Amino acid sequence: MARVFGPQKGATPAQVEELSAGLENWARVLTRDLGVLDTDLYGGPGTGASGGLGAGLAALGARLLPRFDVLLDARLARADLVVTAEGALDHQTPHGKVPAEVARRAKLYGRPVLVLAGTLGEGARNVPGVDAFSGILPAPMALAEALVRASELLTDATERALRMILLGARLPAHAEVSGTQRPSSVR
């Protein structure tokens, strides 16, 4: 997991190797010290979640369930609009990132999906189930600054996106311009 998600979170190649080695050691220690033999604490489903928290919980006997099954479906069934966020929306998003699964499940309920992302990369337009997306950053800035201001930037981006949705909801279905109807391509 560190090799997949570490670079997305800003880890250098050396840091990725250090994180990966740390997770492997964590799994070894849990297996050795707690005598866990029936669960793959390094590569088992959910064990790498939250920096190895899943492995620790599994070692103590917890039954790991996909986060989506536990939290998402009941909320999606009641939602009018689904808004999710991600550090980077790109070609990797459909391969295990939360917004892709949120979008997939939202479509099962016929819900529209908006993704707010720190960066928009190659493939952002092709993430299945995502109806719209918007960048969180209002202007180019250093990663360190973006991380420090993350809460503020996400709040502002959410407000901007929702204001656009409200504006769109107020547009008449067939506005007239100087007594003539708009061309159908404008609708």
Can you tell me about this structure?
About 45% of the residues lie in helices and about 15% in strands. With about 190 residues, it is an alpha/beta fold. It has a 3-stranded parallel β-sheet. Strands 4-5 form a two-stranded antiparallel sheet. Helix 2 (about 15-35) packs parallel to helix 3 (about 50-60). It is globular.
Summarize the structure.
With 187 residues, the chain is α/β, with parallel strands linked by helices. 46% of the residues lie in helices and 13% in strands. It has helices at 2-5, 13-34, 49-59, 67-71, 73-78, 98-108, 143-148, 150-170; strands at residues 82-89, 113-120, 132-135, 176-177, 180-181.
Distance between the termini: 45 Å
* Count of extended strands: 5
Task: Bin the helical content.
Answer: 40-55%
Structural class: alpha/beta
Q: Provide a count of the helices.
A: 8
Q: Based on CA inertia axes, which overall geometry fits?
A: globular
Reported for the largest beta sheet, the result is: 3 strands, parallel
| Cross-sheet strand order for the largest sheet | 1-2-3
Radius of gyration: 21 Å
Give unreliable regions as ranges: none
> What series of H and E elements makes up the topology?
HHHHHEHEEHHEE
What fraction strand? 5-15%
